[in-house]
Amino acid sequence: xxxxxxxxxxxxxxxxxxxxxxxxxxxxxxxxxxxxxxxxxxxxxxxxxxxxxxxxxxxxxxxxxxxxxxxxxxxxxxxxxxxxxxxxxxxxxxxxxxxxxxxxxxxxxxxxxxxxxxxxxxxxxxxxxxxxxxxxxxxxxxxxxxxxxxxxxxxxxxxxxxxxxxxxxxxxxxxxxxxxxxxxxxxxxxxxxxxxxxxxxxxxxxxxxxxxxxxxxxxxxxxxxxxxxxxxxxxxxxxxxxxxxxxxxxxxxxxxxxxxxxxxxxxxxx
Length: 270
Ligand SMILES: [Zn+2]
Known about the structure:
Blueprint: E1 14-24, E2 27-37, E3 44-45, H1 48-66, H2 71-80, H3 85-92, H4 96-103, H5 110-120, H6 137-151, H7 165-180, E4 189-192, E5 195-198, H8 201-210, H9 221-233, H10 237-246, H11 248-251
Antiparallel strand pairs: 1-2, 2-3, 4-5
Helix pairs in contact: 3-4, 6-8, 6-9, 7-9, 7-10
Residues 6, 8, 10, 38, 40-41, 43 line the site of zinc ion (ZN).
């Protein structure tokens, strides 16, 4: 490599590894960077190549700090799983350019980080989409009936698509998960255009309505309190609908993606 000379006339500069600290996207990070340093006046100068390395070091330090996979982790996990970049892109339904960029320093969104982990990490529990219990359709009905009793009006209407009911259920399930480590219904929720919705709701509505609530694990006192709290917070259907649309957890989920229960702590409306 051609030697770089100090612009102040001190002769050739030396390539050095440097410990750096900075605030990036509002987060304090430290990282190792490489730069040419003048041994006389300590002036630093980068090269095109070191600039790219520095950028990746910064982005990796940031991703480590906020709990995202780093470039190196994405690449090594991908290879350990036997995926080419194209295969991973296909599995995630994104372009190969996204995979290439994440592996060279571009920071993925939180929802894409989650999508990467689902493909690449075995320790992501499928439970994260069911709130640590098996789906129980009769319990969904029981909880719907409990909301109906509190409100003194019907939520399970004929021809209903659960547009509002699903949001009451979602908040109750997420709140229960947050507080008790376990949801109420075992339902999975998908982020659709109209907000969080029971995954495969079209196939579930009739079996839920037909299920027998007498044959179901009764609500504990704590679970009952959670349902009450959700009902009191959102007395009208529009309230729960609008609140769900203000949740980042929903906004950041790609359309159709399942919303993990582990994000229950990030809800802001309850
Ligand atoms: Zn100098």
